[in-house]
Amino acid sequence: MALLEEVTQVAVQPADKTNINRLWKIAGILLVVTIIEFIFAFSLPHDWKWMKISIFVGLTFVKAFYIVSEFMHLKHETKVLIWSIVLPMIFVVWLIIALIYEGGAILGVR
Amino acid sequence: MASTAVAEQTNKNLWGGGVSPLKASYGKLMMWFFLLSDAFTFSGLLITYGLLRYSHPAFLGRVADFIPSQEYWPIPEKIFDGLPFLHGISIPLAFVGLMTFILIMSSVTMVLAVEAGHRMDRKNVMKWMLWTIIGGLTFLGCQAWEWSHFIAGSGKEGWGIDLNGDGILQMGVDFFGANLHMNEYGPQLFADLFFFITGFHGTHVFSGVVLNAIVFYQASVGTFERRGHYEMIEKVGLYWHFVDLVWVFVFTFFYLI
Fold first, then answer.
1. Of A76, B3, B69, B246, which has the fewest beta carbons less than 10 angstroms from its beta carbon?
2. Inter-chain touch B122–A12, beta carbons under 8 Å
3. What ipTM did this prediction achieve?
C-alpha cells in the first residue's frame, strides 16, 4: 500500500495555456468551416452542381488537414512518417478519377 | 578491428538499427498504418457511392417539387430533414449537422485528454476522457434515431411504394421506409449504401467508445502512472480522431453533395 501511494504521487506539470488555446482555436476553425458549408448548401442555387461539389470537397479537405495535422499531430512528426501516410493516398485519387469516369460511362449506356 | 568499430560508431546509419528513425514508438506507428489501411476501406466505400450515384440519372425538376422515385437518385437534403421531437417539420440536414458538431467536440475533448496525459495530469485525463466517451455515446444515440427514422419511413404526402398498384398509398398495405431490398427514397442502392457506409462508420465509433472506456478505466486505476507515460491515450486518440475524420467525409459526400 505504501508502494502504491508512492508511485501515484506523480509530479503534475502545470498546463500551458497557449497550447490549450491553440487547440480550442482549431476546434473553432472546424466549426466555422462546417457552418460555412451549411450556408453554402442552402444559399447557392441548385444548378451550380459542380461548383457546389468543388466548394464542399475543398472545405472538407480544409477540415481534414486540421484534424490530421494538428489533432492527430502528423504535422509535427518526422518527414518520412508524414510522407509514408500521405503518399499512398495517391491511389485513392486514382480510384476517384477511374470510378467517376466509369460511372459516367454507365450512365451513358443506361 | 578496433578502428572499424570506431568508424561504425561515428558514421552511424539512421536505418542501421539502434535508433528510431521515425521518432515514434512501435505501437503508434502500427496505429498509423492501420489507420491508413482503414482509410483505404472507407475511400472504397465512399468512391463506390460516387460511382453509383453518378451512374444514376439526377432529379431534374425544381427542388421544392422533389418526390422520390426509383428512376433517379434522391436529393439528400430532402431525405434527411427530420429532427427528434419535431415530427413532420422539414429542417434539412440539421440533425446530421448536430451529429457533426458532437463528434468534432468529442475530438477536441480527446486532444485535451492527450495534452493532459503529456503533463501526467491524471485528474484532467479522466475528466476529458469521460467527456469524449459521453460525446461518442451521444453520437451513437443520434445514429440510432437516424436509422430508425430512415427504416420506419418519412410519412410524407405522396411518398412510399405503391405495392398493389391502386394508386393510393395506404398504411399497412403499401411500403414505407427502407430496408435492404425495398427503398421508399429512391434506387435500392441508395438505401443499401446508407446502411453500409453509416453502419460501418457507426461500428468504428462503437469500438472507439469501447477503447476510450478501457483507457479511461486504466487511467483511473493508475495504470499509466505506474507505466510512467500516457502514450496509450495518444494511440487511442489517433483512432478516435480518425473516426471523426471519416465522419467529416461521410457528411460531405453522403449528405451535402
1. B3
2. yes
3. 0.89
